[in-house]
Amino acid sequence: MSEAIKTIGVILLFFFTLACLCSACGSSITTDNFEKITTEMTFQEVKAILGEPTETTSINFGPLSGTMSIWKGKGITINIQFLNSKVKAKQLFKG
User: Does residue 61 contact residue 70 with C-beta atoms inside 8 Å?
Assistant: First the structure.
């Protein structure tokens, strides 16, 4: 067997193993994790529970800053509104 074929085989095995490991990790965007989010939590605390948001929109007006972040998972979307980096409202959508 040539060295190039062995190298390709090792690379394919590596990526197959990586794909299997990633699929076992599971998503952090769940109803259970949504329930852990409470008013006045910081953006960093929410991010530690849900991970990086899929989308974020921010606006600043004088001393106030408003942010809406969206986390999309398999069949679930979580919207969280922050005022000055603290949770003020949250919504969960399934489907």
Answer: no
Q: How far is CA 92 from the centre of its chain?
A: 14
Query: Does residue 11 lie in a domain region?
Result: no
CATH assignment of the domain containing 50: 3.30.1450.10
Residue range 51-73, pLDDT digits in tens: 999 999 999 999 999 999 999 99
Task: Give how many domains the chain has, as a whole number.
Answer: 1
- Buried b / exposed e along 2-40 (16+ C-beta atoms within 10 A): eeeeeeeeeeeeeeeeeeeeeeeeeeebbeebbeebeee
